[in-house]
Design brief:
- By secondary structure, the protein is of the alpha/beta class.
- The chain has helices at about 20-30, 70-80, 125-135, 145-155, 190-200, 215-225, 225-250, 265-275, 275-290, 305-315, 325-340, 365-375, and strands spanning about 5-15, 35-40, 45, 55-65, 100-105, 110, 115, 160, 180-185, 205-210, 255-260, 300-305, 350-355.
- The protein folds into 2 domains: about 5-170, Alpha-Beta Plaits (2-Layer Sandwich), CATH 3.30.70; about 175-375, Rossmann fold (3-Layer(aba) Sandwich).
- It contains 12 helices and 13 strands.
- The chain is elongated and about 85 Å long.
- About 35% of the residues are buried.
Length: about 375
């Protein structure tokens, strides 16, 4: 997956319920644009350049997969949603909400509609002071000075007052940190790796990804299943056992929980489909000897997709050895997983039908899935 881009956004309001306007803007940015990592204190500041009520200002750190122009377009739509009406007169005016892109990492953008870094930021204490709360060490890509230095050198003599109410970060509503270990599972092409990766990034989790790409038997299995099924399943079992054992035993004090894109039990599900009966009996004995000592996930999420969608995803990601997978094989895997999950009593199970969802391209679908996973 591509990595999101980090944006620094300045927010201001001096009409109506100012604090509510800021919170509504934060909430809509979370829903429409991306994950909010940090929010500064809120400061009361005098109107600069015109007579009006005091402003409330803050800054936030945002991660988004959208292009900068798309982020700007969404910010303008949010301003409109919250009641801002822009006049054609090029003068300062009171506003319910004002949303500006200050930084886009170290990018320099100069188009008709978007200039980054923001052209006036170095002159505005109401931007620099809250920005310093969340990005004091970030350097201005043109001036090559840290935000803390720009704040120190700023000639704006406005007096800003921090208020004692903090804005709420919508991403904190998801209760992932109440779990120590979450497994995201699904059929071939269901999107388990993509979802586990996004959750790990957005919610500060240690990520464990299956190392299937390194398995030399996998391409051979898809060419000649009967010949290579047993060595494939044995190599997967050994590798999954070793990886999970090692990764779960390594404490990471800087992460809140662990999320993986597989559970070792998938070895038994796949082997039941691929192996002959006598081979499976032997495999099952070996599996249970190993599996009984492993830590089990406290939350097991199974992403269900219908066969047609699975095939679409498999074709889209373009792995040569997967292109001839039969529908019957995928349906047997789905059945195997669902039968297994019905028997589990040791941990919470969430089965989520995502056949009509695209959580990679559609943020609303991603947030919907997070809500389902975290519901009590």
């Amino acid at each position: 997956m591509i990595k999101p881009t980090t944006f620094h956004i300045a927010l201001g309001s001096n009409k109506g319920d100012k604090l509510k306007n800021l919170q509504n803007a934060v909430d809509l940015i979370h829903v429409r644009i991306g994950n909010i990592k940090l929010i500064s204190k809120v400061y009361k500041s005098p109107a600069l350049g015109f007579e009006s009520d005091d402003f409330l200002n803050c800054c936030l750190v945002l991660e988004s997969y959208l292009e900068p122009q798309n982020v700007l377009d969404n910010l303008l739509e949010i301003e409109t949603t919250l009641g801002r009406t822009r006049t054609k007169v090029n003068t300062y005016e009171a506003r319910t909400i004002d949303l500006d892109i200050v930084f886009v990492e170290d990018s320099i953008i100069d188009t008709k509609t978007l200039q980054v870094p923001h052209l006036e930021m170095v002159k505005r204490k109401f931007v620099l002071l809250p920005l310093n709360d969340v990005a004091s060490k970030i350097k201005h890509p043109k001036l090559n000075k840290e935000v803390s230095v720009l704040l120190y050198e700023c000639e704006d003599e406005s007096v800003l007052e921090p208020i004692k109410i903090w804005l709420k970060n919508p991403s904190k509503q998801y209760g992932f940190s109440k779990y120590n270990y979450i497994a995201i599972e699904g059929n071939i092409g269901a999107g388990k790796t993509s979802l586990a990766t996004k959750i790990a990034h957005d919610f500060n989790a240690k990520l464990i990804l299956e190392r299937f790409k390194d398995n030399p038997f996998l391409p051979k299995f898809y060419e000649d299943g009967s010949r290579y099924a047993f060595p494939l399943e044995m190599s997967f079992l050994a590798d999954r056992y070793q990886q999970i054992s090692d990764d779960l035993s390594q404490l990471d004090l800087f992460k809140d929980f662990i999320v993986s894109d597989y559970d070792v039990f998938k070895s038994l599900i796949f082997s039941k489909i691929t192996l002959a009966e006598d081979e499976f009996k032997l495999y099952r004995k070996l599996f249970h000897l190993m599996y009984k000592d492993l830590k089990k996930p406290e939350l097991y999420v199974y992403l269900y997709q219908n066969t047609a969608r699975l095939q679409e995803n498999i074709k889209k990601r373009g792995r040569d050895y997967e292109q001839n997978i039969e529908n019957d094989y995928l349906e047997k895997i789905n059945t195997g997983y669902l039968e297994f999950l019905k028997t589990q009593t040791d941990f919470n199970v969430q089965i989520i039908d995502i056949s009509d969802r695209d959580f990679v391209e559609n943020r609303a679908d991603y947030l919907w899935i997070l809500g389902v996973i975290c519901e009590e």
